[in-house]
Amino acid sequence: MNFTTLTQRLTQGPQRRIGLIGADDPASLTAVAAAHAAGLATATLYGDPTTVAASAERAAVDLSPFTLHPCPSAAASTAAALASATSGAVDLLMKGHVDTPTLMGAAVSASTGFRRGGLMSHLAALEIPRQPRLLFLTDTGLNPYPRLAEKRDIAHNALAALRRLGLDRPAMAILSATEVETPKLPCSVDAAHLCAEAHRGDLGPCECAGPVDVFIATDPAAAAIKGVACPIAGRTDLWLLPDMVSGNILTKSLVTFAQAKLGGVILGGACPIVLASRASSAGDKERSILLALAVAATA
């Protein structure tokens, strides 16, 4: 599975509806227009009609295929879009010209009803040159230093998303700096606990190894040299990171130095949310929409 096969799968299904929050953002309008041109989605735009029209003109985007929901402010745009998502009127949300604290503060608030029980978390998908399939990393953008219970929710969110993408038993590596559980590395202790839970079936259908380092996760020969029994070495689908900082650094390093193609999505709510960085390329935003569409299409 890669971004091309995801696109092919989506073109065979019905169009989905994107809710663009703060639609007066030229880059986001361009990405939404690209998804529409590919026949994948249409959109409802939440924002001030005057500023949205001006942004569309700058981006050379035709607004006529889309529905505009007038909102006087970023907060009003966020509230209206979350209400639409909660009611099922849109299939995914995308951050436009609205700051992340405003959006996520409302998304996690009990008053909106958008969050569905557990922790919300970020899932990144990377298409790395010469690798046969997408590699998924979590949490790379939302929860800075999760503890064991929070990592459990993060794993649940990511594994559920991968199963919706067609991976019936995703192979999850829980990463640490070592394959040995040691109190000096609390993340290794957490990894051992979560791996035991996965083996009991508490995380749903999946395969799991942890704690393991990157070498073991990617290379069966490394596992053999270290004498570590890791049946998923070299074929992992998902890496559960110790914290957001390491995940963020790893993701951006793969994009910068390995020319990986990136898409990302927020999970754990009524629908997926595309929450791209301000420095994200147009391609990253389009692939993030693609990933969110693929998750939403089978949710």
Strand and helix layout:
Blueprint: H1 3-11, E1 16-21, H2 26-37, E2 41-47, H3 49-59, E3 67-70, H4 74-87, E4 92-95, H5 100-108, E5 121-127, E6 135-138, H6 148-164, E7 171-175, H7 186-200, E8 207-212, H8 214-218, H9 220-226, E9 238-240, H10 244-257, E10 261-267, E11 273-274, H11 282-297
Parallel strand pairs: 1-2, 1-4, 2-3, 4-11, 6-9, 7-8, 7-9
Antiparallel strand pairs: 5-6, 5-10
Helix pairs in contact: 1-11, 2-3, 2-11, 4-5
Please provide a written account of the structure.
It is globular, with a radius of gyration of 19 Å. Helix content is 43%, strand content 18%. A six-stranded mixed β-sheet has the order 8-7-9-6-5-10, with helices on both faces. It has eleven helices and eleven strands. With 299 residues, the protein is α/β, with parallel strands linked by helices. It folds into two domains: 1-116 and 269-299, Rossmann fold (3-Layer(aba) Sandwich), CATH 3.40.50.10950; 119-268, Isopropylmalate Dehydrogenase. It has helices at 3-11, 26-37, 49-59, 74-87, 100-108, 148-164, 186-200, 214-218, 220-226, 244-257, 282-297, and strands spanning 16-21, 41-47, 67-70, 92-95, 121-127, 135-138, 171-175, 207-212, 238-240, 261-267, 273-274.
